[in-house]
Design goal:
Distance between the termini: 22 Å
Strand order of the largest sheet: 1-2
Radius of gyration: 14 Å
Order of helices and strands: HEHEHEEH
Structural class: alpha+beta
Largest sheet: 2 strands, parallel
Number of helices: 4
């Protein structure tokens, strides 16, 4: 997973940050149980996720207001250099995919 690849991201001066619509206490428990080493942020008020197109906004959807699986490379100036939002939450990018995106983005 991404934790195993943290040294490779750090070598590129990149930071891995996860964002979830779950409450902070839920993320803390998840981090503790799963020994997650990268930063996880809570967007429980759902302010950041829709701003990046990473939330289901269709009111008729059974997963309305759920966060989507999404991957971004954002540079130090806050410019999105790479974005991949998955339609299926089971679809994942590998750490290698994202490392390649970081390198190609020039971020």
């Amino acid at each position: 997973g991404f934790d195993a690849a943290l040294p490779q991201f750090e070598a590129l001066n990149a930071q891995v940050v996860g964002v979830s619509a779950d409450a902070a206490a839920t993320l803390k428990a998840f981090t503790d149980v799963n020994h997650v080493k990268h930063l996880l942020l809570a967007d429980f008020r759902r302010q950041m996720l829709p701003a990046y197109g990473a939330m289901v906004t269709d009111e008729n959807s059974p997963v309305y207001r759920y966060g989507k699986r999404a991957f971004f490379v954002i540079d130090r100036q806050g410019i999105v250099r790479f974005m991949k939002i998955m339609d299926n939450p089971l679809d994942l990018l590998t750490p290698e995919d994202l490392l390649k995106a970081v390198k190609e983005s020039g971020a």
